[in-house]
UniProtKB/TrEMBL annotation:
Family assignment from sequence similarity: Belongs to the binding-protein-dependent transport system permease family.
Residue ranges crossing the lipid bilayer per the database entry: 33-58, 108-127, 165-186, 207-226, 232-252, 264-288
Protein name per Swiss-Prot or TrEMBL: Nitrate ABC transporter, permease protein
GO annotation, cellular component aspect: plasma membrane
Species in which this protein is naturally found: Methylocystis echinoides
Length: 295
């Protein structure tokens, strides 16, 4: 005799509740962002491994007491306070490297800001006028090859003060790539954009802000990235000669005091700051241009 098969409705409902509970359970972060985490490690591990190998080779080459340069272990022993405490203040000239970097960045902000505004305006003018291009472009090509420190004596003679002289050196160093790239961007504006501006009867100011700047933005930000790097390079070099409390003068003072480990630490600060400045301008450019490349 075959027994009839019965279904337990309570068990069925229980199974459905368990399945619904698991469906509502939030996905773990490691699974949700697995691709982003994998991409991060793929980009971070190679430079970290390379850095570790370079430090190891450096340590082996400079470990001897007779070595002219300090090994990484010696740099840590003698200059770890500069690394661990970047914002201490013990006097007008005795302060952490963080404050010195900020002092240099303030000068860069003024000089680079002036160069950015002037460079974009001048580049737009040169890019719009064929006669301005023929007359000014050769001069720009000559002046942009002048090293930053070559301008320092002229700026000191003109301003008779180290602060505006350093800002002028930043300005004159950073403006050329901005001018040249902006002019190239304006010359490469598609003719269709110009036709639309003519149909809409845009005046020169409207054309500048609504057509010229958006169309040339990839070129402009390419020039800005080059300019901010040159600005940081120029201020460090200028501060070695003009003095003050900037990071450049710290390196010169450390050299005069034979503190080589301090110099290596300052170089790390300079490199990291320059990298962050470049990344900052690149991110702003990517947001402003929505990732459009300079063609």
């Amino acid at each position: 005799m075959t027994m009839p098969v019965t279904h337990d409705k309570g068990a069925a409902f229980h199974d459905e509740d368990v399945e619904a509970m698991f469906r509502r359970r939030p996905t773990p972060l490691l699974i949700k962002y697995r691709a982003q985490i994998a991409a991060f490690f793929a980009s971070a591990i190679p430079p970290l491994v390379t850095l570790a190998l370079l430090l190891l080779v450096w340590e082996l080459m400079c470990a001897k007491p007779s070595s002219a340069l300090p090994a990484p272990s010696r740099i840590w022993m003698e200059a770890h306070e500069l690394i661990l405490h970047p914002f201490y203040v013990a006097g007008s000239q005795d302060m952490g490297l963080g404050w010195r970097v900020l002092t240099s960045l303030r000068r860069v902000a003024v000089g680079f800001g002036l160069a950015s505004v002037s460079g974009v305006l001048l580049g737009a003018f040169v890019g719009q006028s064929i006669w301005a291009t023929r007359g000014l472009d050769p001069i720009f090509q000559v002046l942009r090859t002048v090293p930053p420190l070559a301008w320092l004596p002229i700026s000191l003679a003109a301003f008779r003060d180290s602060q505006p002289s350093a800002i002028f050196v930043i300005f004159i160093t950073a403006i050329w790539p901005i001018v040249i790239n902006t002019a190239a961007g304006v010359r490469n504006i598609p003719q269709d954009y110009r036709n639309v501006a003519a149909v809409l009867r845009l005046n020169q100011l409207e054309f500048f802000f609504k057509i010229m700047i958006p169309a040339a933005a990839p070129y402009i930000f390419s020039g800005l990235r080059i300019g901010v790097g040159l600005s940081w390079l120029a201020i460090v070099a200028a501060e070695m000669l003009t003095g003050g409390v900037g990071i450049g003068f710290f390196i010169w003072d450390a050299w005069n005091s034979s503190r080589l480990p301090d110099i290596f630490v300052a170089l790390i600060y300079i490199g990291v700051t320059g990298f962050l400045l470049d990344r900052l301008v690149a991110v702003i450019g990517r947001l402003a241009t929505r990732g459009a490349p300079a063609n």
